[in-house]
């Protein structure tokens, strides 16, 4: 497919299709997505000299992509057909007698199988391969766009967007570049994403109309995303009946309100038969919700779920609910407690097609937070875990911050300790949702290296146990060196690349692999969070939120720092976890260092497990983090000849900014704590 110029091909450069495009392929199966598979292969063949047949075709073939229902399945494909169901999006991959076979029960599985073959490149056509079953761990792998249709006076076109404007909307209207939207859908399918919501969870006046009179704009997006298996969802206002000319109330128990939602939803499905459902932020940060009518979140969510139920649609009801008008003098209110306090008592009350969408941490996408206790508290409720791919609090796509190591920790967290289920298993079969980091920037994500976060989000949603370093390799190979693959996250082994390729890989690993921890080192220490400039959230401001109503405090004084969230003397938040974590976090001795200030208020001289004091840890990590940013820039400068010059120049400029900002963080945080505590740096470094 030809990309709208001058858009970067990201992880699907034409070269990545060489292995397929230079061979003979048979595609067997009907349906829209099987058509996409055929067209993808045909495109690759036109470029690289191979050929593709659809339906019955004369052999020989190097690659067969077939639905299990196809009759007859040619030789090898028939032999590897499994006895049991493969599953809706799954596929079987095998290679025997010189033929590579992808078998799927449904066309979506063929599409994902095709992209698996793309990832393997030449390795897909070498040797023999025992039949492997691949199926996604998460049923829905979804990106939420916080895109506004109108330019919002404060938040702009994309709320918390760092990659230019929206790819869907511009200045109050559809952007009209459907080729770009289609290219986006293709990239998403290639990393396993199968759903998106197309507008901001804060639904402003114009955006509310997407549900009714502007539904055609949503249908147009659904039409171009459908061939890549991407379902479209819509953020809706809970006050829709009132703001869109329906009943004068949005009371979820009002009969007219129920009828209004039923009618509107019916029209949505008339226009978009495979519509995914509604995303709702209610009674949160000023958004309307059921509280206005004395109802609770279950009443609110069930109202919309009832309307969607006949069509198989779902409601993603967000658990990000807290008091954003808190009195900072009141030490008993704790924002971290809020989601659990609101939702845990409602477990069991939600309809089957309500999915409670929980931010991965209890506060707000900080660089370090514990896992939200809500995830372990709702056994009778379907859950989605929400990650922030857009780097609101992690450098805003001006800093390199490869997030999968953090996501891996979240997904691998075991709320009941060793032997209990981890988060991925708890949500297993459910949803992983990411707030998208994409905009109309030529590199899609502003920072070219932030593409890796988007890619990895999809891959982790498919296989949550994958090693982030292996995903990074996979992304590097597809994006930068498609002709010389080193291996994939599926564990396939690797022919060595050229010396240049190896250098390129080493450079990107050095810069990206540990970048999340680097970012953590030079920003807010030991899990305390925030310390960002209010409003836009970029750069340091240690007391920026300290005396505000937002509920995000660090309580630093001359003696110590941190939030006492213990049951014994603090807000009691630790009690929202089951054992062992309720005890581990409660205990000053056992609490992990990196979360110490999230759970405890301690003196600056408190000794960490690492052997360092809190104050010395703050100094050391801030010096180290800023140095690591300088080192990343040095590595990048050294690698100039290995990358496309304009991409290299863009990243170099961004690394200059990262170094500047990291040094600002270092100096502000260190100076702040030196002035508060009066404790000098043991190593006598300059603290301004
Ligand atoms: C953060 C972010 C907001 C966003 C909110 C949400 O607070 O700063 O812009 O609206 O999260 O997740 O709803």
Automatic annotation (TrEMBL):
Key words of the record: Carbohydrate metabolism, Glycosidase, Hydrolase, Polysaccharide degradation, Xylan degradation
Glycosyl hydrolase family 67 catalytic domain residues: 131-444
Keyword Magnesium applies: no
Glycosyl hydrolase family 67 C-terminal domain location: 445-685
Molecular functions (GO terms): alpha-glucuronidase activity; xylan alpha-1,2-glucuronosidase activity
Pfam family, one: Glyco_hydro_67C
Superkingdom of the source species: Bacteria
Active-site residues, record numbering mapped to chain: 285 (proton donor), 364 (proton acceptor), 392 (proton acceptor)
One cellular component (GO) term of this entry: extracellular region
Claim: Hydrolase is one of the keywords in the record: yes
Any Gene Ontology biological process: xylan catabolic process
Family label: Belongs to the glycosyl hydrolase 67 family.
PANTHER family according to UniProt: ALPHA-GLUCURONIDASE A
Protein name: Xylan alpha-1,2-glucuronidase
Organism of origin: Microbispora bryophytorum
């Amino acid at each position: 497919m030809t990309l709208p110029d001058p858009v970067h091909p990201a992880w699907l450069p034409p070269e990545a299709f060489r292995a397929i495009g230079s061979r003979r392929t048979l595609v067997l199966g009907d349906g829209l997505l099987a058509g996409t598979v055929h067209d993808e292969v045909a495109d690759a063949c036109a470029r690289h000299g191979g050929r593709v047949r659809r339906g019955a075709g004369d052999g020989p073939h190097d690659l067969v992509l077939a639905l299990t229902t196809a009759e007859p399945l040619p030789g090898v494909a028939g032999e590897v057909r499994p006895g049991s169901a493969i599953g809706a999006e799954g596929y079987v991959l095998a290679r025997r007698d010189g033929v590579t076979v992808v078998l799927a029960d449904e066309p979506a599985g063929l599409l994902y199988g095709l992209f698996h073959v793309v990832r393997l490149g030449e390795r897909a056509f070498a040797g023999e391969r025992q039949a492997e079953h691949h199926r996604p761990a998460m049923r829905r792998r979804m990106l939420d766009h916080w895109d506004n249709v109108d330019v919002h006076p404060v938040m702009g076109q994309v709320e918390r967007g760092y990659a230019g404007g929206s790819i869907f909307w511009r200045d109050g209207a559809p952007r009209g570049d459907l080729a770009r939207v289609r290219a986006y859908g293709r990239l998403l399918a290639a990393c396993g994403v199968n759903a998106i919501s197309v507008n901001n969870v804060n639904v402003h006046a114009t955006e509310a109309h997407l549900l009714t009179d502007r539904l055609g704009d949503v249908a147009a997006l659904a039409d171009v995303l459908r061939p890549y298996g991407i379902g479209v969802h819509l953020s809706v206002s809970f006050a829709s009946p009132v703001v869109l000319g329906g009943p004068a109330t949005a009371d979820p128990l009002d009969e007219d309100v129920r009828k209004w939602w039923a009618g509107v939803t019916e029209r949505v499905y008339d226009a978009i038969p495979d519509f995914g459902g509604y995303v709702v932020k209610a009674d949160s940060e000023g958004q309307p919700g059921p509280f206005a009518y004395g109802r609770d979140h279950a009443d609110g969510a069930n109202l919309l779920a009832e309307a969607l139920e006949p069509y198989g649609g779902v409601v993603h009801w967000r658990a990000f609910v807290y008091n954003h008008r808190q009195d900072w003098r009141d030490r008993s209110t704790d924002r971290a407690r809020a989601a659990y306090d609101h939702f845990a008592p409602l477990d069991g009350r939600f309809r089957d097609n309500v999915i409670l969408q929980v931010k991965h941490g209890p506060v707000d996408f900080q660089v370090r937070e514990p896992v939200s206790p809500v995830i372990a508290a709702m056994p009778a409720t379907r859950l989605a875990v929400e990650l922030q791919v857009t780097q609101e609090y992690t450098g805003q796509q001006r800093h390199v911050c490869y997030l999968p190591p953090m996501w891996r920790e979240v997904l691998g967290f075991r709320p009941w300790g060793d032997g209990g289920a981890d988060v991925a298993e708890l949500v297993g079969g459910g949803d992983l949702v990411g707030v998208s980091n994409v905009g109309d920037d030529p590199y899609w994500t502003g920072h070219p290296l932030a593409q890796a976060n988007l890619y990895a989000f999809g891959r982790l949603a498919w296989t949550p146990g994958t090693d982030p370093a292996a995903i990074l390799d996979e992304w590097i190979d597809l994006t930068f060196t498609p002709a010389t693959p080193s291996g994939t996250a599926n564990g396939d082994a690797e022919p060595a690349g050229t010396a240049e390729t190896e250098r390129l890989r080493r450079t990107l690993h050095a810069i990206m692999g540990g970048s999340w921890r680097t970012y953590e080192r030079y920003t807010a220490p030991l899990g305390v969070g925030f310390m960002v400039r209010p409003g836009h959230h970029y750069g340091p401001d240690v007391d920026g939120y300290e005396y505000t109503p937002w509920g995000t405090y660090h309580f630093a004084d001359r003696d110590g720092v941190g939030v006492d969230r213990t049951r014994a003397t603090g807000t009691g938040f630790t009690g929202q976890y089951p054992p062992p974590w309720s005890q581990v976090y409660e205990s000053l001795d056992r609490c992990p260092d990196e979360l110490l200030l999230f759970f405890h208020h301690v003196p600056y001289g408190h000794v960490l497990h690492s052997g360092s004091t809190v104050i010395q840890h703050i100094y050391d990590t801030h010096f180290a983090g800023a140095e690591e940013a300088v080192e990343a820039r040095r590595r990048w400068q050294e690698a100039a000849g290995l990358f496309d010059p304009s991409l290299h120049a863009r990243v170099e400029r961004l690394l200059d900014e990262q170094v500047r900002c990291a040094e600002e963080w270092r100096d502000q945080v260190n100076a702040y704590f030196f002035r508060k505590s009066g404790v000098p740096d043991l190593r006598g470094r300059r603290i301004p």
